[in-house]
Amino acid sequence: MQNNFMKKFDANAAASKDSGIFGLPYSVEEAKLVLLPVPWEVTTSYGRGTAKGPQAILQASKQIDLFDMELGNFFEAGIAMQKESKAVQQWNKEAGKLAQKIIAAGGVEASAKLRKIATKVDQYSVRLNEYVYSSTKHILSQGKRVGVVGGDHSTPFGAIQAFLEKYPAMGILHFDAHADLRAAFEGFEYSHASIMHNVVEKTGLTHLVQVGIRDFCEEEFHYIKKNSQRITTFFDTALAEKKLSGASWSTICEEIINCLPAEVYVSFDIDGLDPRFCPHTGTPVPGGLDLQEALYLIKKVAQSGRKIIGFDLNEVSPGTAVSSCVADPAAEWDANVGARLLYKLCGWALV
Ligand SMILES: [Mn+2]
To answer: Ligand 1 centre from 284 Cα, in Å?
Structure first.
Protein backbone atom coordinates (compact mmCIF):
# COMPACT_ATOMS: atom_id res chain seq x y z
CA MET A 1 0.00 0.00 0.00
CA GLN A 2 2.21 2.78 -1.26
CA ASN A 3 0.40 5.71 -2.75
CA ASN A 4 -1.51 8.34 -0.80
CA PHE A 5 -4.93 7.10 -1.75
CA MET A 6 -4.09 3.67 -0.38
CA LYS A 7 -2.55 5.05 2.79
CA LYS A 8 -5.87 6.74 3.47
CA PHE A 9 -7.89 3.63 2.52
CA ASP A 10 -10.16 2.47 5.34
CA ALA A 11 -11.71 -0.95 4.78
CA ASN A 12 -14.34 -0.24 7.44
CA ALA A 13 -15.58 3.02 5.88
CA ALA A 14 -18.07 3.55 3.04
CA ALA A 15 -16.59 3.32 -0.46
CA SER A 16 -15.45 6.60 -2.01
CA LYS A 17 -16.84 7.71 -5.37
CA ASP A 18 -13.62 7.19 -7.33
CA SER A 19 -13.01 3.73 -5.86
CA GLY A 20 -12.89 0.58 -7.94
CA ILE A 21 -14.75 -2.72 -7.67
CA PHE A 22 -15.85 -3.48 -4.06
CA GLY A 23 -14.83 0.09 -3.18
CA LEU A 24 -11.16 -0.94 -3.35
CA PRO A 25 -8.30 1.43 -4.18
CA TYR A 26 -6.22 -0.89 -6.42
CA SER A 27 -5.30 -0.27 -10.04
CA VAL A 28 -5.26 -3.17 -12.52
CA GLU A 29 -1.44 -2.99 -12.39
CA GLU A 30 -1.39 -3.37 -8.60
CA ALA A 31 -4.06 -6.05 -8.37
CA LYS A 32 -3.29 -9.75 -7.89
CA LEU A 33 -6.74 -10.63 -9.27
CA VAL A 34 -8.05 -8.84 -12.35
CA LEU A 35 -11.72 -8.93 -13.35
CA LEU A 36 -12.40 -8.75 -17.08
CA PRO A 37 -15.83 -7.24 -17.83
CA VAL A 38 -17.46 -8.45 -21.06
CA PRO A 39 -20.59 -6.40 -21.89
CA TRP A 40 -22.00 -8.86 -24.41
CA GLU A 41 -25.44 -10.34 -25.11
CA VAL A 42 -25.57 -10.86 -28.83
CA THR A 43 -27.40 -14.20 -28.85
CA THR A 44 -29.68 -13.87 -25.81
CA SER A 45 -33.12 -14.85 -26.86
CA TYR A 46 -35.49 -14.25 -23.96
CA GLY A 47 -35.02 -11.53 -21.31
CA ARG A 48 -32.27 -9.06 -22.18
CA GLY A 49 -30.02 -6.69 -20.25
CA THR A 50 -27.06 -8.86 -19.24
CA ALA A 51 -24.63 -6.72 -21.29
CA LYS A 52 -25.19 -4.16 -18.53
CA GLY A 53 -24.31 -6.80 -15.92
CA PRO A 54 -20.63 -5.86 -15.38
CA GLN A 55 -21.46 -2.17 -14.89
CA ALA A 56 -24.37 -2.97 -12.55
CA ILE A 57 -22.19 -5.35 -10.52
CA LEU A 58 -19.46 -2.70 -10.29
CA GLN A 59 -21.95 -0.17 -8.90
CA ALA A 60 -23.56 -2.65 -6.47
CA SER A 61 -20.16 -3.96 -5.33
CA LYS A 62 -19.24 -0.74 -3.56
CA GLN A 63 -21.62 -1.34 -0.68
CA ILE A 64 -20.13 -4.71 0.27
CA ASP A 65 -18.46 -5.03 3.65
CA LEU A 66 -14.93 -6.11 2.88
CA PHE A 67 -14.27 -8.10 6.04
CA ASP A 68 -15.09 -11.76 5.47
CA MET A 69 -15.52 -14.09 8.41
CA GLU A 70 -14.39 -17.16 6.44
CA LEU A 71 -11.67 -15.58 4.35
CA GLY A 72 -10.39 -12.63 6.38
CA ASN A 73 -8.99 -9.63 4.53
CA PHE A 74 -8.18 -11.44 1.28
CA PHE A 75 -8.93 -8.23 -0.66
CA GLU A 76 -5.54 -6.88 0.47
CA ALA A 77 -3.95 -9.00 -2.26
CA GLY A 78 -5.55 -6.47 -4.61
CA ILE A 79 -8.64 -6.86 -6.80
CA ALA A 80 -9.43 -4.54 -9.71
CA MET A 81 -11.81 -4.55 -12.66
CA GLN A 82 -10.54 -3.54 -16.09
CA LYS A 83 -12.36 -0.83 -18.03
CA GLU A 84 -14.93 -2.17 -20.49
CA SER A 85 -13.51 -2.38 -24.00
CA LYS A 86 -15.08 0.24 -26.30
CA ALA A 87 -14.55 -2.16 -29.22
CA VAL A 88 -16.49 -4.92 -27.44
CA GLN A 89 -19.32 -2.49 -26.66
CA GLN A 90 -19.45 -1.56 -30.36
CA TRP A 91 -19.34 -5.18 -31.61
CA ASN A 92 -22.09 -6.06 -29.15
CA LYS A 93 -24.32 -3.34 -30.64
CA GLU A 94 -23.60 -4.24 -34.26
CA ALA A 95 -23.83 -8.01 -33.86
CA GLY A 96 -26.83 -7.69 -31.55
CA LYS A 97 -28.80 -5.83 -34.22
CA LEU A 98 -28.05 -8.55 -36.78
CA ALA A 99 -28.85 -11.36 -34.35
CA GLN A 100 -32.22 -9.88 -33.42
CA LYS A 101 -33.42 -10.42 -37.02
CA ILE A 102 -32.77 -14.13 -36.62
CA ILE A 103 -34.12 -14.38 -33.07
CA ALA A 104 -37.32 -12.58 -34.17
CA ALA A 105 -37.73 -15.18 -36.95
CA GLY A 106 -37.21 -17.99 -34.42
CA GLY A 107 -33.91 -19.17 -35.93
CA VAL A 108 -32.33 -19.43 -39.39
CA GLU A 109 -34.41 -22.42 -40.56
CA ALA A 110 -34.62 -22.62 -44.36
CA SER A 111 -33.67 -19.02 -45.09
CA ALA A 112 -30.37 -18.59 -46.91
CA LYS A 113 -30.48 -14.87 -46.16
CA LEU A 114 -30.78 -15.48 -42.41
CA ARG A 115 -28.01 -18.07 -42.55
CA LYS A 116 -25.74 -15.44 -44.07
CA ILE A 117 -26.58 -13.06 -41.24
CA ALA A 118 -25.87 -15.83 -38.70
CA THR A 119 -22.43 -16.30 -40.25
CA LYS A 120 -21.77 -12.58 -39.76
CA VAL A 121 -22.87 -12.82 -36.12
CA ASP A 122 -20.54 -15.81 -35.65
CA GLN A 123 -17.68 -13.71 -37.03
CA TYR A 124 -18.32 -11.09 -34.35
CA SER A 125 -18.36 -13.85 -31.72
CA VAL A 126 -15.01 -15.14 -32.99
CA ARG A 127 -13.60 -11.61 -32.58
CA LEU A 128 -15.00 -11.45 -29.05
CA ASN A 129 -13.51 -14.85 -28.23
CA GLU A 130 -10.11 -13.68 -29.48
CA TYR A 131 -10.35 -10.54 -27.35
CA VAL A 132 -11.25 -12.51 -24.20
CA TYR A 133 -8.58 -15.12 -24.97
CA SER A 134 -5.75 -12.62 -25.46
CA SER A 135 -6.81 -10.47 -22.49
CA THR A 136 -6.95 -13.52 -20.21
CA LYS A 137 -3.65 -14.87 -21.50
CA HIS A 138 -2.00 -11.49 -20.94
CA ILE A 139 -3.20 -11.25 -17.32
CA LEU A 140 -2.28 -14.89 -16.58
CA SER A 141 1.21 -14.32 -18.03
CA GLN A 142 1.79 -11.68 -15.34
CA GLY A 143 1.21 -14.31 -12.65
CA LYS A 144 -2.20 -12.86 -11.76
CA ARG A 145 -5.60 -14.46 -11.32
CA VAL A 146 -8.46 -13.71 -13.71
CA GLY A 147 -12.24 -13.63 -13.39
CA VAL A 148 -14.51 -12.93 -16.34
CA VAL A 149 -17.67 -10.92 -15.64
CA GLY A 150 -20.33 -11.30 -18.35
CA GLY A 151 -22.40 -10.64 -20.25
CA ASP A 152 -24.18 -13.73 -21.44
CA HIS A 153 -22.71 -17.18 -20.98
CA SER A 154 -20.94 -17.21 -24.34
CA THR A 155 -18.41 -14.69 -22.98
CA PRO A 156 -15.88 -16.95 -21.17
CA PHE A 157 -15.03 -19.24 -24.13
CA GLY A 158 -11.75 -17.45 -24.90
CA ALA A 159 -10.87 -17.32 -21.21
CA ILE A 160 -11.40 -21.09 -20.85
CA GLN A 161 -9.08 -21.63 -23.85
CA ALA A 162 -6.39 -19.46 -22.22
CA PHE A 163 -6.80 -21.22 -18.85
CA LEU A 164 -6.54 -24.65 -20.49
CA GLU A 165 -3.23 -23.66 -22.09
CA LYS A 166 -1.84 -22.88 -18.65
CA TYR A 167 -3.73 -25.62 -16.75
CA PRO A 168 -4.38 -28.46 -19.24
CA ALA A 169 -5.60 -30.82 -16.51
CA MET A 170 -8.12 -28.41 -15.02
CA GLY A 171 -11.80 -29.21 -14.63
CA ILE A 172 -14.79 -26.89 -14.88
CA LEU A 173 -17.35 -26.69 -12.10
CA HIS A 174 -20.39 -25.35 -13.96
CA PHE A 175 -23.32 -23.84 -12.07
CA ASP A 176 -26.34 -23.35 -14.32
CA ALA A 177 -30.04 -24.01 -14.82
CA HIS A 178 -29.19 -24.96 -18.41
CA ALA A 179 -26.87 -27.64 -19.74
CA ASP A 180 -25.53 -25.21 -22.40
CA LEU A 181 -24.65 -28.24 -24.54
CA ARG A 182 -26.61 -27.38 -27.68
CA ALA A 183 -24.76 -27.73 -30.96
CA ALA A 184 -25.49 -24.11 -32.00
CA PHE A 185 -28.76 -22.50 -31.03
CA GLU A 186 -31.06 -20.58 -33.39
CA GLY A 187 -28.25 -20.84 -35.94
CA PHE A 188 -25.51 -19.21 -33.85
CA GLU A 189 -22.37 -21.27 -33.37
CA TYR A 190 -21.30 -19.23 -30.33
CA SER A 191 -24.67 -18.99 -28.64
CA HIS A 192 -24.96 -18.55 -24.88
CA ALA A 193 -26.79 -21.91 -24.98
CA SER A 194 -23.80 -23.66 -26.58
CA ILE A 195 -20.89 -22.57 -24.42
CA MET A 196 -20.14 -25.96 -22.86
CA HIS A 197 -20.74 -27.78 -26.16
CA ASN A 198 -18.10 -25.54 -27.73
CA VAL A 199 -15.76 -26.14 -24.79
CA VAL A 200 -16.16 -29.93 -25.02
CA GLU A 201 -15.88 -30.02 -28.83
CA LYS A 202 -13.18 -27.40 -29.42
CA THR A 203 -10.86 -27.77 -26.41
CA GLY A 204 -9.18 -30.66 -24.64
CA LEU A 205 -11.17 -30.20 -21.42
CA THR A 206 -11.43 -33.56 -19.67
CA HIS A 207 -13.72 -32.77 -16.70
CA LEU A 208 -16.96 -30.83 -16.94
CA VAL A 209 -19.01 -31.09 -13.75
CA GLN A 210 -22.44 -29.47 -13.99
CA VAL A 211 -24.63 -28.57 -11.01
CA GLY A 212 -28.24 -27.37 -10.82
CA ILE A 213 -29.16 -28.28 -14.41
CA ARG A 214 -32.94 -28.34 -14.90
CA ASP A 215 -33.59 -27.04 -18.42
CA PHE A 216 -32.23 -29.07 -21.34
CA CYS A 217 -33.40 -30.71 -24.53
CA GLU A 218 -33.27 -34.42 -25.36
CA GLU A 219 -30.28 -33.90 -27.63
CA GLU A 220 -28.34 -32.39 -24.73
CA PHE A 221 -29.39 -35.25 -22.45
CA HIS A 222 -28.02 -37.80 -24.93
CA TYR A 223 -24.89 -35.72 -25.41
CA ILE A 224 -24.23 -35.95 -21.66
CA LYS A 225 -24.72 -39.74 -21.73
CA LYS A 226 -22.52 -40.09 -24.81
CA ASN A 227 -19.72 -38.04 -23.24
CA SER A 228 -19.93 -39.52 -19.76
CA GLN A 229 -16.13 -39.83 -19.64
CA ARG A 230 -15.84 -36.05 -19.73
CA ILE A 231 -19.19 -34.73 -18.48
CA THR A 232 -20.83 -35.36 -15.12
CA THR A 233 -24.17 -33.65 -14.61
CA PHE A 234 -25.83 -33.25 -11.23
CA PHE A 235 -29.37 -32.51 -12.35
CA ASP A 236 -31.39 -30.25 -10.10
CA THR A 237 -34.17 -32.85 -9.76
CA ALA A 238 -31.71 -35.48 -8.58
CA LEU A 239 -30.14 -33.05 -6.10
CA ALA A 240 -33.57 -32.05 -4.79
CA GLU A 241 -34.61 -35.68 -4.42
CA LYS A 242 -31.49 -36.50 -2.41
CA LYS A 243 -32.05 -33.51 -0.14
CA LEU A 244 -35.77 -34.26 0.26
CA SER A 245 -35.04 -37.84 1.26
CA GLY A 246 -32.63 -36.75 3.95
CA ALA A 247 -29.15 -36.62 2.38
CA SER A 248 -27.10 -33.74 3.75
CA TRP A 249 -25.82 -31.05 1.41
CA SER A 250 -22.37 -31.75 2.79
CA THR A 251 -22.51 -35.41 1.62
CA ILE A 252 -23.84 -34.32 -1.77
CA CYS A 253 -21.00 -31.79 -2.10
CA GLU A 254 -18.44 -34.51 -1.41
CA GLU A 255 -19.91 -36.54 -4.24
CA ILE A 256 -19.69 -33.54 -6.59
CA ILE A 257 -16.16 -32.62 -5.51
CA ASN A 258 -14.92 -36.19 -6.03
CA CYS A 259 -15.59 -35.70 -9.74
CA LEU A 260 -13.23 -32.72 -9.94
CA PRO A 261 -9.47 -32.74 -10.59
CA ALA A 262 -6.89 -30.77 -8.56
CA GLU A 263 -7.33 -27.53 -10.50
CA VAL A 264 -10.83 -26.14 -10.81
CA TYR A 265 -12.21 -23.33 -12.94
CA VAL A 266 -15.69 -22.19 -11.85
CA SER A 267 -18.13 -21.16 -14.57
CA PHE A 268 -21.07 -19.61 -12.76
CA ASP A 269 -24.31 -18.78 -14.57
CA ILE A 270 -26.33 -16.88 -11.98
CA ASP A 271 -29.49 -18.68 -13.13
CA GLY A 272 -28.12 -21.85 -11.54
CA LEU A 273 -29.43 -20.24 -8.35
CA ASP A 274 -33.09 -20.08 -7.38
CA PRO A 275 -34.62 -17.25 -9.47
CA ARG A 276 -35.36 -15.28 -6.31
CA PHE A 277 -31.64 -14.41 -6.41
CA CYS A 278 -31.72 -13.35 -10.06
CA PRO A 279 -35.26 -12.32 -11.10
CA HIS A 280 -34.05 -10.27 -14.11
CA THR A 281 -31.74 -12.89 -15.60
CA GLY A 282 -32.38 -13.74 -19.27
CA THR A 283 -33.74 -17.27 -18.87
CA PRO A 284 -34.83 -17.90 -15.27
CA VAL A 285 -35.98 -21.44 -14.36
CA PRO A 286 -37.78 -22.43 -11.14
CA GLY A 287 -35.84 -24.61 -8.73
CA GLY A 288 -32.09 -24.34 -8.41
CA LEU A 289 -29.59 -23.80 -5.65
CA ASP A 290 -29.82 -21.59 -2.65
CA LEU A 291 -27.02 -19.00 -2.53
CA GLN A 292 -25.63 -20.57 0.65
CA GLU A 293 -25.58 -24.04 -0.95
CA ALA A 294 -23.57 -22.73 -3.89
CA LEU A 295 -21.15 -20.85 -1.62
CA TYR A 296 -20.76 -23.92 0.59
CA LEU A 297 -19.91 -26.09 -2.41
CA ILE A 298 -17.29 -23.60 -3.63
CA LYS A 299 -15.79 -23.39 -0.15
CA LYS A 300 -15.65 -27.19 0.12
CA VAL A 301 -13.89 -27.41 -3.25
CA ALA A 302 -11.20 -25.04 -1.96
CA GLN A 303 -10.99 -26.81 1.40
CA SER A 304 -10.64 -30.22 -0.27
CA GLY A 305 -7.12 -29.21 -1.28
CA ARG A 306 -8.17 -28.39 -4.84
CA LYS A 307 -7.18 -25.02 -6.24
CA ILE A 308 -9.72 -22.61 -7.69
CA ILE A 309 -7.60 -21.17 -10.49
CA GLY A 310 -10.14 -18.85 -12.07
CA PHE A 311 -13.79 -18.25 -12.74
CA ASP A 312 -16.48 -16.48 -14.68
CA LEU A 313 -19.79 -15.06 -13.53
CA ASN A 314 -22.49 -14.63 -16.14
CA GLU A 315 -26.08 -13.72 -16.94
CA VAL A 316 -26.43 -11.19 -14.12
CA SER A 317 -28.89 -8.67 -15.52
CA PRO A 318 -30.32 -5.44 -14.16
CA GLY A 319 -33.20 -5.88 -16.63
CA THR A 320 -34.00 -3.74 -19.65
CA ALA A 321 -36.75 -1.53 -18.26
CA VAL A 322 -34.31 1.10 -17.05
CA SER A 323 -30.91 2.30 -18.20
CA SER A 324 -29.38 2.26 -14.75
CA CYS A 325 -29.88 -0.16 -11.89
CA VAL A 326 -29.99 2.79 -9.54
CA ALA A 327 -33.17 4.10 -11.14
CA ASP A 328 -35.08 0.91 -10.33
CA PRO A 329 -34.45 -0.45 -6.83
CA ALA A 330 -35.98 -3.81 -7.75
CA ALA A 331 -33.53 -4.18 -10.64
CA GLU A 332 -30.61 -3.50 -8.31
CA TRP A 333 -31.19 -6.83 -6.59
CA ASP A 334 -29.65 -9.06 -9.26
CA ALA A 335 -26.44 -7.02 -9.29
CA ASN A 336 -26.42 -6.93 -5.50
CA VAL A 337 -26.48 -10.75 -5.35
CA GLY A 338 -24.02 -10.94 -8.25
CA ALA A 339 -21.54 -8.62 -6.53
CA ARG A 340 -21.63 -10.66 -3.32
CA LEU A 341 -21.16 -13.92 -5.20
CA LEU A 342 -18.34 -12.35 -7.21
CA TYR A 343 -16.60 -11.23 -4.01
CA LYS A 344 -16.69 -14.79 -2.64
CA LEU A 345 -15.39 -16.19 -5.94
CA CYS A 346 -12.51 -13.70 -5.76
CA GLY A 347 -11.84 -14.77 -2.18
CA TRP A 348 -11.67 -18.49 -2.89
CA ALA A 349 -9.50 -17.86 -5.95
CA LEU A 350 -7.05 -15.78 -3.88
CA VAL A 351 -6.59 -18.04 -0.83
MN1 LIG B 1 -28.22 -20.63 -17.86
So the answer is: 8
Strands (E), 19-175: 33-38, 79-81, 145-150, 171-175
Please state which of the four CATH numbers 3.10.580.10, 3.50.90.10, 3.40.800.10, 3.40.50.1820 is assigned to the domain occupying 2-350.
3.40.800.10
Closest CA to 40 of 182, 216, 159: 159
The pLDDT of residue 2 is 45
Angle at the Cα of 26 from the Cα atoms of 21 and 29, rounded to 5 degrees: 115
Beta bridge pairs of residue 211: 175, 234
The three-class DSSP label of residue 245 is coil
Q: Over the chain, what is the mean pLDDT?
A: 93
Q: Can you state the angle between helices 195-202 and 157-166, rounded to 10 degrees?
A: 30
Q: How far is the CA of 213 from the centre of ligand 1 (A)?
A: 8
Q: Tell me how far the alpha carbon of residue 177 lies from the centroid of ligand 1, in angstroms.
A: 5
d(CA 299, CA 297): 5
Q: Could you read off the pLDDT of 63-99 as tens digits, one per residue?
A: 999 999 999 999 999 999 999 999 999 999 999 999 9
Q: What order of strands is seen across the sheet that includes strand 79-81?
A: 79-81, 33-38, 145-150, 307-314, 263-269, 171-175, 207-213, 231-235
Q: What is the pLDDT of residues 310-338, one digit of tens each?
A: 999 999 998 765 444 455 667 789 999 99
Q: Give this prediction's pTM.
A: 0.95
